[in-house]
Amino acid sequence: MSQQCMTPKNRLREFLPSNLSEFDSFLNQVLGPNGLRAGQTPAGLWEDDGSYHIELDVPGVTRENVEITLDKGTLSISAERKHEESEATRKGWREERFYGKVTRAFSLPDTIDSESVSAELTDGVLRVTIAKSPAAQPKKIDVK
């Protein structure tokens, strides 16, 4: 009876020189498999006419475990996904899901209205909206 490996494997890596495979493994440890540093979550940033928007993927995080602060033009977000006790005690072969704290900081332009920051967490996506200050809004001037 043959024994099979339970770990997913990329067949292409079997043909790479061993030192390249080791380097790839090192980069995955430092940067993570998608190129982000460990503890960093992907973000989307954009603006429309009246607001700036930031979205972060934070699956498994509850509202109680999210902290957002705005200080001197820097918006800081931290979120923590806690290990459930039942998951911590089970004996698994591999755990690819992230547990722990992630933090991101964003430098915002001077044109924000710091009193109008709002945040919403829905389906594992944190959405932060920051209104632009009224002075930053384009003003239409009527010609008489």
Describe the structure.
The chain has 144 residues and is mainly β. It folds into two domains: 12-40, no CATH class; 42-84 and 99-138, Immunoglobulin-like (Sandwich). The chain has two helices and seven strands; from the N terminus they run H-E-E-E-E-H-E-E-E. It has helices at residues 18-31, 85-89; strands at residues 43-47, 51-57, 66-71, 74-81, 100-107, 112-122, 125-132. It is elongated, with a radius of gyration of 22 Å. The relative contact order is 0.19. The model is unreliable at 1-13 and 15-19 (pLDDT under 50). Residues 34-144 form the SHSP domain.
Helix content: 10-25%
Shape: elongated
What's the count of strands?
A: 7
How many domains is the backbone divided into?
2
**CATH architecture call of the largest domain:** Sandwich
Cα distance, first to last residue?
A: 91 Å
Q: How many DSSP helices?
A: 2
User: Structural class per helix/strand content?
Assistant: mainly beta
Using only C-alpha atoms, the radius of gyration works out to: 22 Å
Mean model confidence by pLDDT: 76
The largest sheet, given as strand count, sense and whether it forms a barrel, is: 4 strands, antiparallel
Biggest sheet: strand arrangement: 1-2-7-6
* Strand percentage: 35-45%
What letter string, H or E per element, gives the SSE order? HEEEEHEEE
Low-confidence stretches: 1-13, 15-19
In short:
This is Spore protein SP21. With 144 residues, the chain is mainly β.
